[in-house]
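agent> step 3/5: call structure_predict on target 'ABC transporter substrate-binding protein' (Methylobacterium longum).
agent> reason: downstream docking stage needs a structural representation; sequence fetched in step 2, passing through unchanged.
tool.input:
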Amino acid sequence: MIKAKVDIIIAVTGPATAAAQRATSTTPVVFLVVPDPVGRGFAKSLSRPGGNLTGLSTAAVELSSKRLEQLRAAIPGLKRVGLFVNAKDSSMSRAVEERTRSTATNLDVLVDVTQIDAPQELSGAFAGLSSRSIPAVVFMQDPLFFNERRQIANLGLSNRIATMVANGLMVRDGCLISYGPNFPAQFRRTASFVDKILKGHSPAEIPIEEPARLELVLNLKTAEALGLEIPAALLAQADEVIE
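tool.output (status=ok):
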């Protein structure tokens, strides 16, 4: 892209943004589906990025607390939960684990962390939760887990383990519950950043946006297959219920 002298690079996910950052310090980069842009070193701050990168954050670390709270609301008696993180993204995994454990302490929930290095490890990881009688698992927001959403949904059902994920599309593919940004809306929002840059604004001065709206998505077909009855109060809060 740099050799082709493109005007702007759009980078989707943290790894893609890191690659773009390594490739150029001058060509504007607009990123999205990035959990923690300041923590990952893509910007100096959300309000003033300060370099050639700007875009949209998914605020995934901050939302880790809320995901556990919503899972507990879906399963009121929950006392133990798994947390699957990507072993190849140690800094993000550590931040999500710390935030989740802090919330779990307040909720009197024990957290069992499993580091996943490759898709082939998911089956064994689910089997491990099942053997330890852990009824639910939270997934950190990560491309690895999104790409394996159908496998994750199937493994959750076959092991009778409830799955809390970060993306509503994963729930539409069979996971139990999600809480997070509307990702298609974030892709559409990217166009406004491109427009500003093409009109002469510097990425250094275009604030990074966090999600303006968060969605709770529930799959009642999955809940029924798992033998769960989702409380009416949570159903009333849901932005989308799959029946």
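agent> step 4/5: record observation. Residues 60-180+215-242 form a domain with the Rossmann fold fold (CATH 3.40.50.2300).
agent> proceeding.
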